[in-house]
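Quick question about two entries, pasted in order.
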Amino acid sequence: CIIVVPAVKKLYTPLDTELGHFRRYSADELRRKMAAAGFEVVHEHQFSKLGTIGWATSGHLLRKRHLSPFQMKGFDLLLPLAKLFEKILPVPGMSLIMVGRKPQAADKRLAA
């Protein structure tokens, strides 16, 4: 199972509602939900730190309810720069990817 979700609960704004997001997740919360569904988490990564700053600015400071085409084009242009900032910005990423797999039953492993 590969899942990408909006992260950082404090970032939830009307922008999320407009995009159909019902919530934002913490890594711990998503890990618990994956385990409850029977998955063992094999990889997780939070990303888009520059996006966090833009999202917080648009949603919380400017109180925008929609992303304009100009904003989307601007972010596309900044994408190469955003990749550099991933390693140095001291903020959490606004998105979270988690990969889980269903563990094999012990008897299936022994039979192989």
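Here is the second entry:
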Amino acid sequence: MSVHEQARRYFNSGYNCAESVLLALGRQAVLKARGSEPFIPRIATGFGGGIARNGSTCGALAGGILAIGLVLGRDNPEMSRDLCYAAADRFYTEFIENFGTSRCRDLTELDLKKPEDREVYESRVHEARCNPIVVWAAKRAHEIILESWR
């Protein structure tokens, strides 16, 4: 199963957008090799709904950046952050180009702190709007990781 299909499966089974992207990417060999799996999906939970339903940074974007950092990030301050920053910047820039914004509230047009908006999200927006974003984020972050990995 492809990484983006796995992300969609996780997303539709109840994981939030950030958890789904990071979990799908974390199950890939490159992230497993870095020993990151025990922290996934917990490390991404707070990013759902634009950081705890605050409508800020999209969780799918955050999940992709977390995965990029797990593979390309540094282990100590003497190491360079340039490779990770370049990959994260590329992912972020392409996300904005594709979706027009990085803000969850702008992407969903909902305030997920309101119960009535969460109902709209569950009935319509999850499938129609957020599924394609989660799929794109998992696929593109995976590609960027593989292209950048040494």
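Reply: The helical segments are 3-12, 17-26, 29-33, 48-51, 59-72, 82-99, 104-108, 115-148. The CA atoms of residues 18 and 60 lie 5 Å apart. Hope that helps.
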